[in-house]
């Protein structure tokens, strides 16, 4: 997998430098498509290697609802770093290349930061509550940065993925945060709401993805050692309603309340769906 990464990251970084130096938007968009093609080949190589070293059973439902030339916003439950590999394996070349929300500080990470930028990954800057208490004028600036990051996707079909729990699930986190769900942490709505208000008129739908590991969430090392035995990926396509696009999450309290209520209902459905998917997987085994 390291060799596969080196093979594809070298031309990707070379094109990234060219894109960085180009002042014209048109050629930059062409380079972006080439960069995405290289990234898709990297994902395909990793998926092939995983098939060679493990006998993973993949149960995927709903993939036929999606198209490669559309725009999507994916919302996914988050349990392990393996989630990213599983999602890339399932969705590669079935939808546009998955774009992840990335912490703004990672743009300065050697080499990879340039690669993230070249692939138009949306960078986010989140201010802590203590920082906002000292600098109240910065309230809403992190969400506005999300809005600006999403604007670049208007020119190329894009799949924006958001792990809206904000972190990986664990029982300890669920209890500490007082989550009302059995299998999930409470969702964070801000980034999703801003993505919808920024480019919701372009999204063909909201792709509600539920990932379940019937034998328990694996770690990355276990996956590369061939211990990923069973993955269930359930896909539901939800409509983007007009009220989601027209609202102002930062300044409109009524809109925020409605959005939290809607997302809470989606998360309750997902919580029950996880129970059902686990039960069905156990019955099949």
TrEMBL record:
Start and end residues of each Phospholipid/glycerol acyltransferase domain: 72-214
One cellular component (GO) term of this entry: plasma membrane
One of the record's GO molecular function terms: acyltransferase activity
Tree of life domain: Bacteria
Ranges annotated as spanning the membrane: 6-22
Keyword Transmembrane among UniProt keywords: yes
Keyword Repeat recorded: no
Entry keywords, A to Z: Acyltransferase, Membrane, Transferase, Transmembrane, Transmembrane helix
PANTHER family associated with the record: 1-ACYLGLYCEROL-3-PHOSPHATE ACYLTRANSFERASE-RELATED (PTHR10983), ACYLTRANSFERASE YIHG-RELATED (PTHR10983:SF15)
Protein name: Acyltransferase
Organism: Woeseia oceani
């Amino acid at each position: 997998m390291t060799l596969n990464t080196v093979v594809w990251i070298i031309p990707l970084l070379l094109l990234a430098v060219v894109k960085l130096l180009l002042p014209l938007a048109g050629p930059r968009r062409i380079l972006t498509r080439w960069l995405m093609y290289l990234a898709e080949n990297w994902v395909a190589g990793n998926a092939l290697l995983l098939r060679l070293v493990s006998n993973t059973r993949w149960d995927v439902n709903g993939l036929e609802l999606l198209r490669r030339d559309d725009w999507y916003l994916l919302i996914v439950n988050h349990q392990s770093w393996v989630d990213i590999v599983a999602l890339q394996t399932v969705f590669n070349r079935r939808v546009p290349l998955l774009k992840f929300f990335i912490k703004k500080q990672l743009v300065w990470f050697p080499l990879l930061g340039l690669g993230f930028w070249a692939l138009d990954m949306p960078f986010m800057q989140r201010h802590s509550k203590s920082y906002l208490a000292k600098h109240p004028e910065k309230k809403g600036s992190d969400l506005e940065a999300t809005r600006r990051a999403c604007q670049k996707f208007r020119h190329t079909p894009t799949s924006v993925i958001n792990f809206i729990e904000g972190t990986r699930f664990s029982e300890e986190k669920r209890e500490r945060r007082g989550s009302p769900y059995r299998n999930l942490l409470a969702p964070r709505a801000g980034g999703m709401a801003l993505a919808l208000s920024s480019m919701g008129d372009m999204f063909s739908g909201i792709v509600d993805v539920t990932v379940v590991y019937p034998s328990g969430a694996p770690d990355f090392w276990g996956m590369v050692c061939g211990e990923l035995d069973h993955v269930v990926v359930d896909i539901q396509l939800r409509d983007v309603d007009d009220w989601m696009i027209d609202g102002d999450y930062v300044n409109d309290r009524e809109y925020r309340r409605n959005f939290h209520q809607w997302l809470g209902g989606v998360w309750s459905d997902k919580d029950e769906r996880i129970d059902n998917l686990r039960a069905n997987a156990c019955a099949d085994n």
